[in-house]
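Retro notes, structure queue

What went well: the backlog is down to a handful. What didn't: a couple of records were mislabeled last round, so from now on we paste the full input next to the output in the thread. Example, using Nucleoside diphosphate kinase regulator from Alcanivorax quisquiliarum:
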Amino acid sequence: MNQPPIIVSRLDVQRIEAILGDAADLDVADALEQELLRATLVAPADVPPDVVTMNSRVRCREEVSGREYTLTLVYPQDVGQGKVSVLAPVGAALLGLSVGQSIEWPGPGGKPLKMHILELEYQPEAEGDYKL
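Corresponding output:
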């Protein structure tokens, strides 16, 4: 599977690595770990403003169904209405993508997801709103 290049902040990687062992779905955790290994890592201040980072709000489309979603990518303890965990299949797929990119990702029950990033409505790094 040919995946698009991704960019992830070093701070997000540190925080995600600390929770990977808590993942209920080991397949998602393994896939996310592989994504982190292939990612270009940058300082939070150097993240381009069109990249999905932790706590970003993104408008995306699931290509198979054509459904559009507005989701905020969060850590598992922050999941709620409109918020998806980075340890869930959709959340793991979104991390590090840029506006305009698509990714194929194993979804729930092995059903493939093809997610396309339409718009980044909010990114903490672009707003200087990240905690070191």
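Agreed that this is the format going forward. Reviewer comment attached to the example: The helical segments are 10-19, 26-38, 89-94.
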